[in-house]
Amino acid sequence: MIKQAIIPLAGLGTRLLPLTSVFAKELLPINGKPGIEYILEECKEAGIKEIIFIISKKKEMIKKYFYNDKFYQRIIQKKNDKRVIKEYRKILRYKKMIKFVYQNKPSGTGDAVLKTRKFIKDDFFLMLLPDDLIIKKNCSKSMIKIHNKFNASVMASMNVKKKTVSRWGIFKLKKKFSKFNHLIEDVVEKPSISEAPSNKAVIGRYILPKKIFSELLKIEPGKGQELHITDAIRSLIKKKEKFIAHSFSGKYLDCGTMDGYIKSSMEISKL
Ligand code: G1P
Predict the structure, then answer these.
(1) pLDDT tens track for 189-230
(2) Structural contact between residues 237 and 185, judged by C-beta atoms closer than 8 angstroms
(3) What is the spatial distance between Cα 221 and Cα 207, in angstroms, rounded to a whole number?
(4) Which pTM value belongs to this model?
(5) Distance from the CA of 108 to the center of ligand 1, in angstroms?
(6) Angstrom distance (rounded) from CA 260 to CA 15
(7) Using a 6 Å cutoff on CB, does residue 169 contact ligand 1?
């Protein structure tokens, strides 16, 4: 069973400047709710019991959001506002599930994953990238089902326009397991159009094996001198570790760019 999830939150959010110059992008409201709460809801509904937040000193605002008890207690004591009480209770429920670890240098998603090494208990765990919202269908829940069926690692996949392949990790697929699930032959981080093995991109939901940690310790930094999770996955695939690409059926919202962020509120308001 997948019981633990990790969420890298140390990114600077430069694609959302000026909104992120003093504010954590994951706390920015999307249709009246901080983006991170959509991710937490997805985890909870998928049966996750513990969530590890990888933050940095610059992003301590995120911790504060869950540890602002005195403030809430004072407000609730002053005015017995039902809405505030309900919101505070929700935050307390999440707080119980969350652990914080630090990644103070932005050295890539692979480096962020490594920071959680001591905390992962089971053979597999879930990772969610908070820029990627998936609405209408719980992608993590579907991926956990696939993991349970095939006892393999799973990554979310979506077709993208060929001219945008250099923005994503791109899959080379092997065998078809079922309509929405393929065995992965290879995955390349942000290839050029000519290098790209397909137009099937990695979207930010991963069920990873614990083995990924020892692989991350072995590999060298890749593009931009960062340690990429994609490179560690690639290396495990070469060692015959089974990874499945799952074409999810929910709707993807890219909240990491200004254009996508603006559109995401509109999309969610239509639900
Ligand atoms: C990361 C991954 C990339 C993946 C993308 C999905 O890139 O490295 O493989 O396709 O998330 O959003 P980033 O968005 O951090 O540049």
Answers:
(1) 999 999 999 999 999 999 999 999 999 999 999 988 999 999
(2) yes
(3) 22
(4) 0.97
(5) 10
(6) 11
(7) yes
